[in-house]
Amino acid sequence: MSVLIFIDTTEGHVKKASLEALTYGATVAEQLGTSAEGVVLGAANDLASLGKYGVKKIHHVSAGSLNHLDAQVYANVIGQVAIASGAKVIIFSNNVDGKAIAPRLSARLKAGLVSGAVALPDTANGFTVKKNVFSGKAFANITVNTDIKIIALNPNAYKVIAGEGTAEVVAFNATVDAPKVKVTNVTKASGQVPLTEAEVVVSAGRGMKGPENWAIVEDLARVLHAATACSRPVADAHWRPHNEHVGQTGFAIAPNLYIAIGISGAIQHLAGVNRSKVIVVINKDPEAPFFKAADYGIVGDAFEVVPKFTEAIKKLKGVA
Amino acid sequence: MKILVCISKTPDTTAKIAFTGNNTKFDTAGVQWIINPYDEWYALVRAIELKEADPSTIIHLITVGAADADPIIRKALALGGDEAIRVNADSHDSFYIASQIAEVAKQGGYDLVFTGKETIDYNGSSVGGMVAELLDRPYVSLASKFELSGNKATITREIEGGEEICEVELPVVVSCQKGMAEQRIPNMKGIMGARTKPLKAAEPVAVDALTTVAGFELPPAKAGVKLVSPDNVEELVRLLHEEAKAI
Ligand SMILES: Cc1cc2nc3c(=O)[nH]c(=O)nc-3n(C[C@H](O)[C@H](O)[C@H](O)COP(=O)(O)OP(=O)(O)OC[C@H]3O[C@@H](n4cnc5c(N)ncnc54)[C@H](O)[C@@H]3O)c2cc1C
User: Domain spans of chain A?
Assistant: First the structure.
């Protein structure tokens, strides 16, 4: 018996969301009195060092055809590892790759899946996991009734804890089918924090009046090492790229700090950001609904407040 | 070409979320129901566009649910699609739903199965992947573009911090999100036409759900906003640093 954690990589590096899954999985293993093992597909560096997140053993399937995601092939290989290692609980991050693979594996192994988990399983009486539902407006406790359980942990829902230790890395000899999905082109903003992984997000709405005014938003984001986001009408008007759109119909995010500038706080917007730990709202309308969902707020004109805010943070951080 | 589009009935995006029965059931009192936005705006509209490009295309819609889902599926038919199938079953979990869809998909010989990227109530993002596995077909999730040339689909999908383009031969299962298509409003002709389109009820196959809902919880209420004067942004920075420990 073991807890098996899928370790997701990009260009050989382990994604932050997977470090969260590793820490979470190691805690679940402790809870169940068993050991945590990892599985990595494709090229990856420095796997032994992942032992510091509590994982004892890592199964590595390094076939070159696994460098790009084909969920069908991935689910098959992870299923082989799960069965060989006697995994009773399999953990994914509920990130892009997790959303593609975990449901397939669930159907393949007939193993109940909780996707979007936000807390450790309650194992006192069965196996129940809390997850987000209704776009962050509620939680459901889901009981998994099958022998093998699969959990897809929401990004930013569990804190990474690094301790000491090295993991034993073993090459796993799997049957790897030829991928049917062929990746022909990858575009990635380099040097930028991916929105869904960002600790701090600076977001702006229609209150900015036009795309030409975004410099003050970007300046603030820069001093905070934050990702930038926007409301739906801003993306629809092409003031900002679509991959910045957060909310019900855009990305759902859960950063440590979400700063909303000139966004009214419509319920559909809140649906994507209400899991943020701390929310700051800057809006000139004291009646803006966003203030009801905020922890801190300034009623004022963004064009005056934001540059001052940026300067004050620079001062705090000691940057000139 | 035959396309199967999965349609889910969800509460309106502004619905009040509350629970009854000792927090075991979603309180449907006063709730307006809509087509899950991802299913409607992206999956269905893209399928309709493919049919507009190639009129020989056949679009079937499928939903798993009780008869109260019929108005929703009629609304979807008003946008487009040739006929609809409702598997007459209360939905249990995603695996149960996926098993019903896979069964219909197997019998119908579809080249393409489209789903939305997730439902806005359960937020599972699971049905598409499960259907693909049950059909033993490739799955491309979180697609924002879909082009077809003969039997080959070129799909843009999301990756963390970017996107990638991939190619796959049909048949394939695709989950759709923003970018795939633009929202459409049904016109009068569509609404009238939808009334006479076939809506078939099918009986479910026997499948055990893998999970059950033990109960729901609402998040704890926020303590209330602390307002800071616009002339004193330093105070906001101090609070974020010292009190919230967020910067
Ligand atoms: C089914 C559905 C799904 C939707 N999904 C989403 C979604 O995913 N994401 C999303 O964001 N929206 C979504 N919407 C739209 C949503 O309802 C709102 O219309 C939208 O969020 C409003 O965007 P906004 O706050 O930028 O603009 P507005 O509502 O126009 O608000 C602008 C705000 O800026 C303030 N302001 C103006 N000037 C200044 C200034 N100088 N300084 C400070 N503040 C200023 C105003 O007081 C106002 O509060 C959805 C709607 C529907 C029906």
Answer: 2-171, 195-317
B220 touches chain A (CB under 8 A): no
A237 touches chain B (CB under 8 A): no
Taking contacts as CB-CB distances below 8 angstroms, the residues of chain B near A99 are: 125-126, 129, 141-142
A272 lines ligand 1 (CB under 6 A): yes
User: Chain B interface, mutation test: which of A249, A261, A319, most B Cβ atoms within 10 Å?
Assistant: A249
Q: Give me the number of domains chain B comprises.
A: 1
Question: Fold for domain A195-317?
Answer: Rossmann fold (3.40.50)
Interface confidence, given as ipTM, is 0.96
Length of chain B: 247
Quick: pLDDT tens for A29-72.
999 999 999 999 999 989 999 999 999 999 999 999 999 999 99
> Can you give the pTM of this predicted structure?
0.95
> Quick check: do A2-171 and A195-317 share a fold?
yes
Q: Do B161 and A195 touch (CB under 8 A)?
A: yes
* B6 belongs to a structural domain: yes
Q: Is residue B26 left, alpha or beta, with left meaning phi > 0 and alpha meaning psi from -120 to 50?
A: beta
Class of domain A2-171: alpha beta
The b-or-e profile of A29-46 (16+ CB within 10 A means b, else e) is beebebbbbbbbbbebee
A250-265 per-position pLDDT tens digit:
999 999 999 999 999 9
CB contact under 8 A, A281 and B236: no
